[in-house]
Amino acid sequence: MSPHPTTLIPYAERIKFHTNPTAIKILEIMDRKKTNLAVSVDVTSAKEALEVVRRVGASVCMVKTHCDIFEDFTPAFTEELLRLSKELDFVIFEDRKFADIGNTVSLQYSSGIHKISTWSDLTNAHSVPGPGIIAGLSKVGLPLGRGLLLLGEMSSAGSLAVGGYTEQTFKMAQDAGREFVIGFIAQNRIDKPEKIGEGEDYLIMSPGVGLSAKGDSLGQQYRTPRECVVESGADVIIVGRGIYGVEGGEEAVKSEAERYREAGWKAYEERLGRK
Ligand code: S5P
């Protein structure tokens, strides 16, 4: 099977295909820092999450959070995360997986304790409610220059986001236009070459990445960075426990992030034919 055309274009050369400020920022950072690694800091303490971010920040293009799992969430957390994002040059992705009607998600995005839209460059949504979810989030996020990913596939065993669901999710994004929807959480390039036009570029971000473990006891399934980037054409690899969960203390977390960055970047160079 011939490679997907998008995967043969360097990240920096894809910037011109985007108008969304967050998409442009992600591609610029990836090129500048030579990293396609996103670290997911799924710890229950915001203080601890910031410590992980300080250690891995130099190696990543993106830090992904689940702000609703922090027991000590305060606005001070997001202030410090924003400061670190500038100092260490990464984008913030709140993995909120919105899944409600447009009016509700616009409130969940802008309001409540977390006020996600005020600090998170990127967020994501399930397509299950229909296009109103994009419209609701866009109303809040687009004026702020934020970006949105739709979940086209999931890494977990038995996911229902397959086949026609995935195809219709792609179509929903395409119909919405690329001002706000910049790509997908997916395990494959769901932007099939025959469905996209010239310069129609989407960012595919793949979770479920591990260099050692193959899965967990709750359905998570892991692939290697090479499998994701070379074989499946992912643009960004998302790693959680493989990095912050490594044994050996602070230095081990830092060096594990570097190990994943190197593996992800080597895979990217291989797919460009630069190896
Ligand atoms: O399909 C998915 C989508 C997401 S965003 N599978 C996932 O695992 N994720 C998220 O990626 C998940 O919520 C978690 O934050 C991260 C994977 O964590 P890990 O510890 O298994 O690497």
Automatic annotation (TrEMBL):
It is an enzyme of class 4 (lyase). CDD domains: OMP_decarboxylase_like. GO terms for biological process: 'de novo' pyrimidine nucleobase biosynthetic process; 'de novo' UMP biosynthetic process. SMART domains: OMPdecase. The active site is at 95 (for ompdecase activity), 97 (for ompdecase activity), 100 (for ompdecase activity). Substrate binds at residues 42, 64, 155, 220, 240-241. Pfam families: OMPdecase. GO terms for molecular function: orotate phosphoribosyltransferase activity; orotidine-5'-phosphate decarboxylase activity. Pathway: Pyrimidine metabolism; UMP biosynthesis via de novo pathway; UMP from orotate: step 2/2. Residues 36-256 form the Orotidine 5'-phosphate decarboxylase domain. It catalyses: orotidine 5'-phosphate + H(+) = UMP + CO2. Keywords: Decarboxylase, Lyase, Pyrimidine biosynthesis. It comes from the Eukaryota. InterPro entries: Aldolase_TIM (IPR013785), OMPdecase (IPR014732), OMPdecase_AS (IPR018089), OMPdeCOase_dom (IPR001754), RibuloseP-bd_barrel (IPR011060). Its EC number is 4.1.1.23. Belongs to the OMP decarboxylase family. This is Orotidine 5'-phosphate decarboxylase. It comes from Kwoniella bestiolae CBS 10118. The lineage of its organism: Eukaryota, Fungi, Dikarya, Basidiomycota, Agaricomycotina.
